[in-house]
Amino acid sequence: MKRLLALVCLSALSLFAADISGNWKATAEGPNGPMERTFAFKQEGTKLTGKTVSSFTGESVIQNGKVEGDSVTFTIDVRFGDNEMKLNYKGKISGDTIKFTVENPQGGGMNIEWNAKKVS
């Protein structure tokens, strides 16, 4: 009975998850001024895939993406010069906006805050 109740609760959570499929444009304040990044998300249930593009790091594939309720998480691999890094994205969804915090585990704890708006 407990297993059935847990399964029903998990199914209910996925029903209430926001669908963020589509194109998004994000801005952030970087060390050298404003930065822009676009996201093309594809969501199936709680699974999130897609890609992101910035003029600074180019195109990256979204990995390990998950949407649960109003929370979204994923990782991307980027290249800065000769260095490859994994960036961890955590966001809160509110309608047609997402506020992301991006952690760079190799970057000495430097986090970047991105504000994304859905464009289509």
Verbal overview:
By secondary structure, the chain is mainly beta. The chain has a single domain (2-118), classed as Lipocalin (Beta Barrel), CATH 2.40.128.120. Helices cover 12% and strands 63% of the residues. It has 1 helix and 9 strands; from the N terminus they run αβββββββββ. A hairpin with a 7-residue loop joins β8 and β9. The radius of gyration is 16 Å and the shape is globular.
Query: What's the count of strands?
Result: 9
Give me the Rg, rounded: 16 Å
Number of domains: 1
Task: Spell the H/E element sequence.
Answer: HEEEEEEEEE
CATH architecture name = Beta Barrel
> Number of helical runs?
1
Instruction: Going across the biggest sheet, name each strand in turn.
Output: 1-2-3-5-6-7-8-9
Describe this protein with a few key phrases:
120 residues; mainly beta; Lipocalin; globular
In short:
The chain has 120 residues and is mainly β. Helix content is 12%, strand content 63%.
Secondary structure elements and their pairing?
Blueprint: H1 2-16, E1 22-30, E2 33-44, E3 47-54, E4 58-61, E5 63-68, E6 71-80, E7 83-94, E8 97-103, E9 111-118
Antiparallel strand pairs: 1-2, 1-9, 2-3, 3-4, 3-5, 5-6, 6-7, 7-8, 8-9
